[in-house]
Amino acid sequence: MFKILKQSIRTGIVTNSFPAVIGDPPDGFRGKPIIDYARCTACDKCAEACPTTAITVEAKAPAESNQKILSLNYGDCIFCGECEVACPEAIRLTEDFQLATTEKSELLSQACFKESKTGYFEFSEVVAQAPPAQQSAEEIGAALKEKIDKLFGRSLHIREVDAGSCNGCEVEITALSNPVYDIERFGIHFVASPRHADMLLVTGPVTRNMEIALRQTYEATPGPKIVVAVGACAIGGGIFGKSYASCGGVDTVVPVDVYIPGCPPRPEALLHGILLAIDRYPADRLSTEE
Amino acid sequence: MKQKYIQLLRTTWGNIFTEEITPVANELYLTLESGALSKLPEICSVLVKALKAHFVMLLANDERELHGKFFIYYVFSMTADNLFLILRVPVDAREREVPSITASLDSATWFEREVQDWFGIVPFPNIGKLAVHPDWPEDVYPMVKEFDLKRSVRRVKGSFDFKHVAGEGVFEIPVGPVHAGVIEPGHFRFSVAGEPIVNLDVQLFYAHKGTEKIAEGMNPHRAVFLAERISGDSSFSHAVAFCHAIERTQQIEIPQRALVIRTALLELERISNHIGDIGGVLLDVGFSIAASRAFYLKEKFMHLNEILTGSRLLRGMAAIGGVRRHIEDTLAKREAMQETLKDGQEAFEELVDLLMSSSTVLDRLESTGVLAHKDAYRLGIIGIAGRASGIDRDLRRDHPHCAYPYLKFHSVLCNEGDVFARVNVRIDEVRESFRLLEQLRRQHVDEPIKATLQSPAPDRCALGYFEGWRGEIVHWVMIGKDGNIFRWKITDPSFHNWRGLKLAVRHNIVPDFPVINKSFNLSYSGNDR
Fold first, then answer.
1. Minimal Cα–Cα distance from A117 to chain B, Å?
2. Considering only CB atoms, which chain B residues are within 8 Å of A246?
3. Domain membership flag for residue A111
């Protein structure tokens, strides 16, 4: 008993102050990749290096071979940095990791490249632009804190559903309950049954063998409910894609409200995504569901 | 060395083996004549019983386009000689039958069932489905070459075939595939008489993602990223095992510095997972304070991982020919490593002290979930679960590579086979890992971290292996004519050990299941792939 007390007192409080202060990832962290279009020639090297299909370079239309579309989908990205290695001139992996969004389309950046007289492709226009990373960690932290304070009357109950992930996302979701991230301080609890849940936190590409189970879990969750797709697999199949064994993403099976990119997302990226989901919880789901 | 085994086998059975040429020094491939197929069970039995071979795995390979046949590879490890003996057995493409070896080698059961479900090669006597669910049609085999990865397969009617226990007061408790905690999917069917568990049946493969199929035709460099995603908590070990296989097919010499980095990261992976598991066990017996301390400590090591490599799960580090990054190239990294190891070691000893001084905790752990040595041996249990039941096998010592041949460490062994033994193995392994890391930090070698690579030589195959934190991870890779992957077989230790868990929970009470399960902490994704 004394041993426990002694140890506890000496350790003190270890919980971080998220979201007021968001821990900056260390040097060398592989976060959101960005392409400097001015230095890009749509040469395809990055797309070839990409182990998933996060980066693609395709002709704009079969007839228009003089125009290429370069797409970068943060949802499919596994943040391996191979594109940066293939093209250090134009691609850089930033330290941004809070990439959660409510719209899948916001995960996509696209630019059009036109063939110039010299035979090289040059940047002509932005077709789609994923929202820029948050201004600064402190600003975002303060904004989120305010939202949570407003919503604090309500506690959120989460049922985690592993729809065939590699367990990487589970490792990080489990970490949310450790004393450093301590998700329960936000009134957020992981519950044992979908019947008790407000939110489903779904990981994995949804394997063929989990498809029915996921659908049943969704149906067993009382409305209003929100679904959060965690990780590249859950967003669009990730490195596993769509195959005989995998449906290729959670939204092919049940509707998804928030997407959290990452492979796996860091615990703070998960917190950000979950809090983003809470923010929209009362606003538009209450009126549309049931 | 190889000749010794060839002679031994030929004196008993005559000239029914052909040696295949391989550049890999410690792999001996012997192809069995088609006519001698019926001798297979006997050969396997003699290998294990008389020659003290350890059954590692078996795998099927659709080589019809190369040799007009399927082949099954039976992989045995000869620990005394650091040699892998691989029996290559031809299977007729039409009949698709092969004698079962499970009568003499129980540990091969699941492997044979997987081959049956994925290749349609029936080891007679026929046994039930394992790797596909009952709604999978009868005559569709995903791993044969003509099966298209992108094909969508219709669902048929079918129901799980659980072992039912009958008798007065016997009930069934179904659990999963969506579990109460944050864990992977699988279905448990308990038959209970009151509190004690009479039988446990497990239905897995909910997390089957077709990883081995996806990899076929893939460039090996790209497949490294797939290997990192076989089992999230063993990202680096699986990736290293895969790289090791490719490097062996190509005879790539890895720079010393890269080997040191690999070894350090593998030990860091072991430390963080072991500490997490100890925390999990403590949580499951209700000792929350100690559990929180363990999770805090694990978090510290996850954070260290991120500082050193940029990834909390050590992803994006493994590469064919070495590693992708230095880990201690800056002062900040060196200091973080130094500090975390020092503080971590102290905090870990305090944690162990807390655990050991609580009699109620010890009472829950001791004699709970016993897996007897003879059962562990029969089922081929490996890794931490095996070493807790007196199975003295550790690939780091028995088939060493990376920096292990130059390092001093001892392999931990317990004999009780209960939850406490599995916790104790982890505790001592963490201490060993700290010692290993200290030795590694003294190695100052100024060398590149990656070998220069040639374009891959085609038509080669080799094993890649590593003792991950959970147990031995063994991959077998065959490079095709185009230099891409022709076949990749992944064996996670969980595939061996699930059957051990089924046995260990018997006669225990239902409330002890979580802690027994946690003490094994098997991977679902690694098992299902």
1. 35
2. 209-210
3. yes
B388, B403 contact by CB (below 8 A): no
Alpha-carbon distance B99 to nearest alpha carbon in chain A (angstroms):
29
Of the CATH numbers 3.40.50.150, 1.10.645.10, 3.80.10.10, 3.40.30.10, which one belongs to the domain with range B216-499? 1.10.645.10
Residue A201: give the domain boundaries: 137-288
Residue that terminates a domain, selected from A128, A150, A172: A128
The total number of structural domains in chain A stands at 2
Of A128, A163, A198, the position where a domain reaches its end is A128
For residue A109, is it within any domain?
yes
On whether residue A281 sits in a domain, the answer given is yes
Could you give the ipTM of this predicted complex? 0.91
In angstroms, the CA B199 to CA B204 distance is: 16
> How many Cβ pairs within 8 Å bridge chains A and B?
185
B14 at A interface, C-beta within 8 A: no
Decide: B489 and B59 in contact? Cβ < 8 Å: yes
Residues A167 and A83 in one domain: no
With beta carbons less than 8 A apart as the criterion, state whether B89 and B30 touch: no
Contacts of A263 in chain B (CB under 8 A): 229, 315
Tens digit of each residue's pLDDT, chain A (290 residues): 778 888 888 888 888 776 666 677 888 888 889 888 888 888 888 888 899 989 988 887 777 778 888 889 998 999 998 899 888 988 988 888 888 888 888 888 888 888 888 878 888 788 877 776 554 445 555 555 565 556 545 678 899 999 999 999 999 999 999 888 888 877 788 999 999 988 899 999 999 999 999 999 999 998 788 899 999 999 999 999 999 999 999 999 999 988 999 999 998 888 888 877 876 544 444 433 33
Give the whole-angstrom CA distance, residue B280 versus residue B291. Answer: 7
A113 and A151 share one domain:
no
* DSSP annotation of B46: H
**A171 neighbourhood in chain B, CB within 8 Å:** 232-233, 312-313
Q: What is the pTM of this model?
A: 0.92
Six-digit token string for A209: 């063998």
Contacts of A266 in chain B (CB under 8 A): 306, 312
By the CB < 8 Å criterion, does A164 face chain B? yes
> Tokens 């590692």 appear where?
B56
**Is A269 part of a structural domain of the chain?**
yes
| A180/B contact by beta carbon, under 8 A | yes
Residue in B151, B178, B296 closest to A179 by CB: B296
State the CATH number of the domain containing residue A203: 3.40.50.12280
All structural domains of chain B with their residue ranges: 2-124, 216-499
Q: What is the CATH T-level fold of the domain B2-124, as seen in this structure?
A: Beta Polymerase; domain 2 (3.30.460)
Residues 6+ apart with CB under 8 A from A135: none
Q: Give the Cβ contact number of residue B156 at 10 Å.
A: 11
Contact A76/B at CB under 8 A: no
Q: Which of A25, A48, A32 is nearest to A109 (CA)?
A: A32
Contact with chain A for residue B529, Cβ under 8 A: no
Q: CA neighbours within 13 Å on the CB side: how many for B414?
A: 22
